[in-house]
Specification:
The chain is of the alpha+beta class and 776 residues long. The chain folds into three domains: 171 residues, Aldehyde Oxidoreductase, domain 4; 85 residues, 2-Layer Sandwich (Aldehyde Oxidoreductase, domain 4); 303 residues, Aldehyde Oxidoreductase, domain 4, CATH 3.30.365. The chain is built from 20 helices and 28 strands. The strands form seven sheets. A seven-stranded mixed β-sheet has the order 3-5-1-12-9-10-11, with helices on both faces. A five-stranded mixed β-sheet has the order 7-15-14-13-8, with helices on both faces. A four-stranded mixed β-sheet has the order 18-26-27-28, sandwiched between helices. The longest helix is centred in the C-terminal third of the chain and has 28 residues. Pfam families: Ald_Xan_dh_C, MoCoBD_1, MoCoBD_2. It comes from Roseomonas fluvialis. This is Carbon monoxide dehydrogenase.
Length: 776
């Protein structure tokens, strides 16, 4: 963590640990935000996609003649026109349990031989206006021979199921195993008790506020593509577009991202539409814009979750965990997204451990293709699920064995003296006090006052239950990340980095880090993050690692600024560089009161003119921070619900969280991130489920059919921090963006199970399901 001088009053307002308001908000509230669909490039035309109405079928022909002749139409394109482009495919080097690599699937921009889900793009139309493009798209005729479809992973993997690909036997692209199967089975064989639950991790529509949108441009003079698009990181997306899809050098592609209205993993990678607008822009010599409509988003945006899991926990006679085992089917959808294979494999393996000293674990997952929308990362991406499985197992095991569930957790918690703790998951936990966090959460939730609240609920004829979500998640390890500081001529300082804010509030938090380290006035700090031309590295935002990555990169660049500043201040103050000290934004000659502020020094270097070779001509600094280990945010959520036995409606009455996020740079932003994750977890637990018909039609394709949590579904959330600073990154931060989901899924579902007398029901706990469970 950077040194701070609390004698500087600005650090008490804008430094690390202060609840500084988001700098982004005034801009957005004044309507000055610029999302992709807000942009209009001179001369732009419109693209509309033509999508398959069938979940599975052989393409016999695509008739485009009528569409091409319609008013305003500039072009109609099919797969034959897009043959020059490379595929989108999984980027993960995962292997089957027999050591062979996963079976990859190459997805072109448009379906060529077969359609494999409702919404699979088969053509696109470009016209002068959006209305003209839509009219022409409706005139494109598809000759498709429908084939049987399959939408459930376990059904698709069964003998005799319809096959999506000739080169994927049994529709299984990956038969994954992590752990020592023999040792785990031996532990289960000698266990005094085994608890097993069949758990469905329901499929989710991401439902970001901003639908996907893109503008493709072709710079003929430079021979260069420009793509304006919402993303989670322009550096990685540029590399994917250039290397894998467009097949051009990376300097021939520029990605620009403005404001982004949510993503949660979904906008991280390339989609078919991006190659389409760039192809048309190059061919037509005009910018081409595409913006999805909400109905299209339901079909074409990658979905989240979707696993069928048999989870088992083995205990000895004293209640100590001997082993945990997951056997799952993972639904990949019709194609493999870049990271779709990760959730039920690597992330299950890392996160089923949670904060318990379970000595053995086994994760076996079959990833299966089906005739559904592809699945990719969604807030937590396998981390919430791992914690959910473990917490449901613990609550059920406690009931089955007559033990107190809190005591059972504490008995099996990793103890503080065990750190660093090498887990069988392969992780090395560096810090934490899990039992203390649990105790603090119980106190904050007034656990001992529950009996009176339950009696009051009983008197009103409603059922009351309480649940604990004790969690630990493994963040993504920070990748190489750029840290650049530019002292601008207008007296501001620009931070350039490769993570990307799509709602989190990076500008404020990063400015706090820089302000605390260098004393640069908070209001003078700007952030540049969405232009690939400015980047030499960048891991993007995902996996709760942004502050650990960009924060560390900013600190590293700031150290360079200080060293350059010592040399420059020595010249300006006529002293030896080694006699210059730096404290709270000021360079001074040791033992004297002579000095110069960092901003004044930067301005003086710009004004002085030619300088001696040994004196830097600016304080600008650029560095690339090498990746640090993943971190382990943890905490405990406590939820109380009431259930109306006549209707099955669940109402969340009380909700408290205590979290260890390490060093917190901005508690207001962190609490907001926790609230968002909790609400998305509640959405999955109570409301959200993607449903398909037997022939693969999406039954939940609008907000009339698909439930999202609303404000009146939610209580106030109690939020407290119990930090143990992380020891493996310079800020001491642990990440917080996805932790809300990791705690809320088990807390809510454990509370519902408690109210139902220990019955297990799957998410979402809709009134219908709860009502049915109450009747056996």
């Amino acid at each position: 963590m950077p040194d701070t001088n609390l004698a500087d009053p600005t650090l008490l307002k804008f430094g690390i640990g202060q609840p500084v308001k988001r700098q982004e908000d005034p801009i957005l509230l004044r309507g000055q935000g610029r999302y992709t669909d807000d942009m209009a490039v001179e001369g732009q035309v419109w693209c509309v996609m033509v999508r398959s109405p069938y979940a599975h079928g052989v393409i016999r022909g695509i008739s485009v003649d009528e569409a091409r002749g319609m008013p305003g139409v500039l072009g109609v394109f099919t797969a034959a026109d897009m043959a020059e482009y490379g595929p989108m495919r999984s980027v993960l080097p995962l292997k089957n349990k027999d050591g062979t690599p996963l079976i990859n699937i190459d997805r072109g921009p448009l379906a060529a031989d077969r359609v494999r889900f409702v919404g699979d793009p088969v053509a696109f139309v470009v016209a002068e206006t959006k209305a003209q493009a839509k009219d022409a798209a409706e005139a494109v005729e598809m000759d498709i021979d429908a084939l049987p479809a399959v939408t459930e992973a376990s059904v698709a993997a069964a003998p005799g199921a319809p096959l999506l690909y000739d080169h994927v036997p049994g529709n299984v692209v990956l038969d994954f195993r992590f752990g020592d199967a023999e040792k785990v089975e031996a532990a289960f064989a000698k266990a005094a008790h085994v608890t097993t639950l069949n758990i469905r991790n329901n499929r989710i529509v991401v439902a970001a506020m901003e639908p996907r949108s893109a503008i493709g441009e072709w710079d003929a003079a430079e021979g260069r593509y420009v793509l304006r698009v919402g993303s989670q990181g322009v550096f990685g997306l540029r590399n994917q577009m250039a290397n894998d899809i467009l097949k051009v050098p990376v300097d021939k592609v520029r990605i620009i991202t403005g404001n982004v209205g949510g993503s949660f993993g979904m906008k991280a990678s390339a989609y078919p539409e991006y190659a389409c607008v760039l192809h048309a822009a190059k061919l037509l010599g005009r910018p081409v814009k595409w913006t999805d409509e909400r109905s299209g988003s339901f079909l074409s945006d990658c979905h989240g979750r979707d696993h069928e899991t048999e989870a088992s926990l083995a205990l000895d006679g004293d209640g100590r965990f001997l082993a945990v085992r997951l056997r799952s089917y993972g639904n990949m959808g019709a194609y493999l997204s870049t990271v779709g294979n990760l959730m039920g494999t690597g992330n299950f393996s890392k996160n089923i451990q949670s904060n318990y000293a379970t000595p053995l674990l086994l994760v076996e997952t079959k990833n299966v293709v089906t005739n559904t929308t592809p699945v990719s990362a969604y807030r937590g991406a396998g981390r919430p699920e791992g914690n959910y499985f473990m917490e449901r197992l613990i609550e059920t095991a406690a009931r089955e064995t007559g033990r107190d569930a809190i005591a059972l957790r504490k008995l099996n918690h990793i103890k503080p003296e065990a750190f660093p703790f090498s887990a069988p998951s392969g992780s090395v936990y560096d810090s934490g006090d899990f039992s203390a966090v649990l105790d603090r959460a119980l106190e904050a939730a007034d656990w001992n006052g529950y009996a009176a609240r339950k009696a009051e609920s009983d008197a009103r004829g409603v059922l009351r239950g309480r649940g604990i979500g004790n969690f630990l998640e493994c963040t993504a390890p920070p990748m190489k990340e750029q840290g650049e500081l530019v002292f601008e001529a207008d007296g501001t300082v620009t931070i350039v980095t490769g993570t990307l804010d799509y709602g989190q509030g990076h500008w404020s938090a990063f400015a706090q880090v820089l302000h605390s380290k260098l004393g640069v006035p908070f209001e003078k700090i700007r952030l540049m993050q969405g232009d690939s031309d400015r980047l030499v590295a960048g891991g993007g935002t995902g996996g709760s690692k942004s502050l650990m990555a960009s924060g560390a990169a900013i600190l590293q660049a700031a150290d360079i600024v200080i060293e350059k500043g010592r040399a420059a201040a020595g010249y300006v103050l006529e002293a030896a560089a080694e006699d210059i000290e730096f404290t709270a934004g000021r360079f001074s000659i040791a033992g004297t009161d002579r000095g110069i502020g960092i901003m004044e020094l930067a301005a003086k270097l710009r004004a002085i003119g030619p300088l001696p070779q040994e004196v830097p001509n600016s304080l600008d600094a650029q560095t690339v921070y090498d990746q640090a280990p993943m971190a382990y945010p943890n905490g405990c959520h406590v939820c109380e619900v009431e259930i109306d036995p006549d209707t099955g409606i669940v109402r969340i009455d009380r909700y408290v969280t205590v979290n260890d996020f390490g060093v917190i740079v901005n508690p207001m932003l962190v609490e907001g991130q926790a609230h968002g994750g909790i609400v998305q977890g509640i959405g999955q637990a109570l409301h959200e489920r993607v449903a398909y018909s037997e022939d693969g039609q999406l039954l939940t394709g609008t907000y009339m059919d698909y439930g999202l949590p609303r404000a009146d579904d939610l209580p106030s959330f109690g939020f407290e921090s119990a930090p143990s600073p992380c020891t493996t990154n310079p800020l001491g931060a642990k990440g917080c963006g996805e932790a809300g989901c990791a705690g809320s899924l088990p807390a809510v579902m454990n509370a519902i199970s408690d109210a139902l007398g220990g019955r297990h029901i799957d998410m979402p706990a809709t009134p219908e399901r709860v009502w049915a469970a109450l009747r056996g």
